[in-house]
Structure formats: structure tokens, C-alpha cells
Amino acid sequence: MSIFRSLQTILIFLLFYFIYSFFIYTQEAESIAANKIITPLAYEGRLVFQKYNCISCHQLYGLGGYLGTDLTNVISKKGAYYVSAVIKNGMLKMPNLNVEDKEIIALIEFLSFVDSSGVSPVIEFETEWYGIITPKTKK
Ligand code: HEC
Predict the structure, then answer these.
(1) 86 CB within 6 A, ligand 1
(2) What is the CATH number of the domain that holds 89?
(3) pLDDT digit string (tens) for 52-87?
(4) N or C: at which end does the chain have fewer Cβ atoms within 10 angstroms?
(5) Does 85 sit in the ligand 1 pocket, CB within 6 Å?
(6) Are 100 and 52 in contact (CB under 8 A)?
(7) What contacts 47, CB < 8 A, 6 or more positions away?
(8) Is the CB of 94 inside a 6 Å radius of any atom of ligand 1?
(9) Model pTM above 0.85
(10) Does the beta carbon of 95 lie inside 6 Å of ligand 1?
């Protein structure tokens, strides 16, 4: 094989390499959570969550205090009306923190955002004998 042939082959490989890299690096990464931008109201709710120190008793994504429950998916599990009612009035060991109505609306928006961003506790998976991985269903 002549030297020009080898050079030609190398150049063609390089060309394909650059075209391939171009597509890989310019493709938009698909991630539902990462593309989500927190809304101003949800951000306000985050500040309210910090103001009343809800995290001292509750967890988000499994982290926080353990007197109360994990609030990561409370909106989809129990609904916004239930959550507003609990925050407004307190419940058994949950104190009535005198949160203003305006702040509750922001809190609900924040908790909905958290809910859409992940699940807690983290789903466990199991591998079937034939190689398929499925989420463990425990209710
Ligand atoms: C002093 C600790 C404490 C603080 C602070 C606290 N909570 Fe709670 N919360 C609890 C406890 C304990 C419960 C469970 C009540 C029960 O069932 O007896 C609870 C229950 C709840 C529930 C209902 C959960 C469910 O699954 O039924 C929601 C929603 C909630 N709290 C939201 C909040 C928010 C939002 C804040 C901050 C504004 C907050 N809590 C601050 C202790 C606290």
C-alpha cells in the first residue's frame, strides 16, 4: 500500500472522528430534572421553608430531622389541600407555626417542585434471573 493510501485512510478516520465528536458534544443532554428551572414562587417557598426551619423536623430527599415525615413526595401522595391544611393548623405533634397564607402558597409551590425533582426513599431495584432490572414494588 502506498504512503498516500495510508494517509488517506487516516484522514478519513480523523474526519469521521471529528464529525462524530461534533454531534456528541453539541447534542442537548436530556434530563427532565436538570432542565427544570425553579420558579420565583418556588424559590420564595424555599426561603419560607428555611425561615420556619421545617427541615429540623422533616426530611427532603431523606435528609433532615426525624420527628416529622419525609416531605419530598408529600404533594403527590397527599395533595396540596391536605398539605396546606396541615401547615395552617398543625396536627398532633406538628405545631401550628402561624405561617401566613401567602407563605403557604409559596411553600406548596416549593414542595411541588421538590416532588417533581425526585423520589424519596430512593427506589430499590432487583435483577431477574433473565437479566431484566425492575423496581422493587413494596407498598
Ligand atoms: C417541631 C417539629 C416540626 C416542625 C418545625 C415542622 N413540622 Fe411538619 N410535622 C411534624 C410532625 C411530628 C408531623 C407528623 C404529625 C402527626 O402525624 O402526628 C408533621 C406533619 C407534617 C405534614 C403532614 C405530613 C404527612 O405525610 O401527613 C406536613 C405537610 C408538614 N408537617 C409540613 C411542615 C412544613 C411545611 C413545616 C415548616 C413550615 C413543618 N412541617 C414544620 C413536625 C414538625
Answers:
(1) yes
(2) 1.10.760.10
(3) 999 999 999 989 899 989 999 999 999 999 999 999
(4) C
(5) no
(6) no
(7) 106
(8) yes
(9) no
(10) yes
